[in-house]
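Q: I'm writing up a methods section and want to include an example of the input and output format. Could you take the sequence below and give the corresponding predicted structure tokens, formatted cleanly so I can copy it straight into the document?
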Amino acid sequence: MAKTRTNNNKTLFPLGPHPLPPHPFGVHLAATDQNTAHTVPHRVLDDGPLKPVAFIAAMTQWIVNHHVSPDALERERVRRKALARQGLVDTVQRFPINLSTQKGNWAEILLAEYVATSSGAQLPVYRLRYNPNVDQSMKGDDVLAFDLDSDPVRVLVGEAKFRSTPSKAVVEELVGALVKSHSGNIPASLQFVADRLFESGKNELGAKVAECNALFAQGKLQLDYVGLLVSNRDVHRHVQRNAKSSVSRVAVISLGLANPEGIVTASFAGARVQV
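A: Here is the clean output for your methods example:
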């Protein structure tokens, strides 16, 4: 069973506790909360308890859900059956083939699911469903999660990166992106989320998300920032030494895997089989 260990008394905001079993994060990943050498809250995730086949199966389901809506998935299956009866092959591409994009999307999806599960915040829109070119990375915030019932209303802004080999440079790039987002004030993708909700008929939720603009102007919106770096098992050392921030409400998660690229490619291979 995965456990959460804490090295000091500083709370790792904006995250809640590490998920417990039977959630896949609780089953397959162990967590340790600590502060970096520069006092940035740092949650170390490691793959000690990881069972690759089961973890890949969970990631596969999240990959499908983040890229394709249930309605679109059903339409896809109907179309493919119709084409198959005519001896034709469906050429629609739902998932990236480019390995670099796969790795970026994989890290983004894991961060989104982790933040939502740990904090209890909502993911009202799966933004990768709206990517017009699946082999290119999308612009905008990697993750926007909303706690609309909290007082004050809270938005969690996430940035995810995947590197086969960790380095000081990528840690600085990750934290720098979060600091840049903070300096830009309101999250760049907030209106994108509201617009997609209105378009899908979720007007009440769309209005609550759109209202975050006014709440920010009134100083009544809490913004928290979470970065994730996925790499090999040495990643936590690089984060521990190099993550520093001038912004107080920033936290970093490191995920060290024995075979990070292998898990990514297997997860996307599973997704392609399902769709």
